[in-house]
Automatic annotation (TrEMBL):
Record's keyword terms, sorted: Cobalamin biosynthesis, Lyase, Methyltransferase, Multifunctional enzyme, NAD, Oxidoreductase, Porphyrin biosynthesis, S-adenosyl-L-methionine, Transferase
Coiled-coil segments: none
GO MF, one example: sirohydrochlorin ferrochelatase activity
One annotated GO biological process: siroheme biosynthetic process
Protein name in the entry: Uroporphyrin-III C-methyltransferase / precorrin-2 dehydrogenase / sirohydrochlorin ferrochelatase
Active site: 199 (proton acceptor), 221 (proton donor)
Length: 408
């Protein structure tokens, strides 16, 4: 049977909208109504904490009572979202008499309106209806959004360029490795790049989604081996941008967490090249998380320190007070520390960290090749060597590193 619905966009800004029910359905529907500028009045004796927070913030008006006949007076739109079918039916009946379109959450076909699975992308708002199959609507919506983000479906803008949105350079954090963990904005800007300057640890699979004409510049910084000079990278960004290209500098993790991102921003600024900064999910916290290592946990760790392992303890270039770190009781997240792990462990032990302090080493975090080594501070250097641990790996030192093992 053909879908009986007529898809339309409602202009609700400044207009009264009544929602009956303050539970999880309300929590899902309210933000978009508020964003649309509707004057939302909520009728419910109770709400979820998030919904009451919206009322406290003045985003909605909450009438803390049960629904009563007449609540829909002067409303333009209504939503019956309680867990009581009789109340929802009464709301829809009043809406019908008042000629107010009404969504009924528990029985969509019984209302006079349905809420589509909606998506937003670059100024577009679209909805999908499937005749009473909400999961199907959501699946199609998600597929369209993914295609728009990847640039495989045109979004109707001017081809490949919109000057107000695309500055000379976009500094994009690609996340810890899994291509699904790049931000939505980062993926969108990447899909519109003319040139992509990419690090070895950036999500490689994303490059395959680029159009054939996109120029890819390899700025691989292989640990302790061949490396592209930072000056060369800076110069490449500036030259490509000044040639009229939109350049995406795609980096692993977050560009401002040991990623030299701000060096590149300063170089572009000095050359008069505008930069858009798009933060990424930092590997320092995300990689331990996917390995069941929380960097904080109530009653276990009240502090987290992220430390670069680029230089060893005692090196004249080191800015780290290892004796102070050794006296901490919280979490140390050590980045780029595989090669010098014996030196770091020794410095912490000599500074007073207990030998039995749990340590987790997460290699290739979020990737198909991820593996986790669990050890102690006294043994981790030998264990990592025996296991053949190689960069990239995130090393977590502290009680939190032993929590998952204790729960097994």
């Amino acid at each position: 049977m053909d879908d009986p619905h007529y898809l339309s966009g409602l202009q609700l800004a400044g207009r009264r909208v009544v929602m009956v029910g303050g539970g999880t359905v309300a929590q899902r529907r309210l933000p978009r109504l508020v964003r649309a500028g509707a004057r939302v009045e909520l009728v419910s004796p109770h709400t979820s904490p998030s919904v009451s927070g919206m009322a406290d913030a003045g985003e909605i008006v909450w009438h803390q009572r049960r629904y009563a006949e007449g609540d829909l007076a002067d409303a333009w739109y209504a939503l019956a979202c309680t867990d009581d079918p009789e109340v929802n039916a009464a709301v829809c009946a009043e809406a019908e008499r008042s000629r107010v379109f009404c969504v009924r959450a528990d029985e969509g076909e019984s209302g006079s309106a349905v809420t589509p699975a909606s998506g937003r992308h670059g100024g577009l708002l679209f909805g999908v209806l499937s005749g009473g199959e909400p999961l199907r609507s959501a699946a199609v919506r998600d597929s369209v959004l993914d295609a728009l983000h990847a640039g495989t479906v045109a979004d109707g803008r001017a081809p490949r360029r919109e000057e107000a949105e695309l500055p000379g350079v976009a500094l994009v954090g690609g996340g810890p490795g899994d291509p699904d963990l790049i931000t939505v904005r980062g993926r969108r800007l990447l899909s519109r790049a003319d040139v992509v300057v990419v690090d070895r640890l950036a999500p490689r699979e994303l490059l395959d989604e680029l159009a054939p004409e996109v120029e890819i510049v390899d700025a691989a910084k292989i640990p302790y081996g061949r490396a592209a000079s930072q000056d060369v990278i800076n110069r490449t960004l500036i030259e490509k941008a000044k040639a009229g290209k939109f350049v995406v500098r795609l980096k692993g993790g977050d560009p401002y967490v040991f990623g030299r991102g701000f060096e590149e921003v300063l170089a572009c600024a000095e050359a008069g090249v505008p930069v858009t900064m798009v933060p990424g999910i930092t590997s320092a916290f995300a990689v331990p998380a996917v390995a069941d290592v929380p960097v904080t946990h109530r009653g276990v760790a009240h502090e987290v320190v992220v430390v670069s392992g680029h230089v060893a303890p005692g090196d004249d270039r080191s800015l780290v007070d290892w004796s102070l770190l050794a006296r901490m009781r919280g979490t140390i997240v050590l980045m780029m520390g595989v090669e010098r792990l014996p030196q770091f462990a020794k410095a912490l032990l000599e500074g007073g960290r207990p030998a039995e302090t749990p340590v987790a080493v997460v290699e290739d975090g979020t990737m198909r090749t991820q593996r986790v080594l669990r050890s102690t501070l006294a043994k981790v250097a030998d264990d990592a060597a025996a296991a053949g641990v190689r960069p990239p790996a995130v090393i977590v030192i502290g009680p939190v590193a032993g929590l998952a093992h204790e729960s097994e």
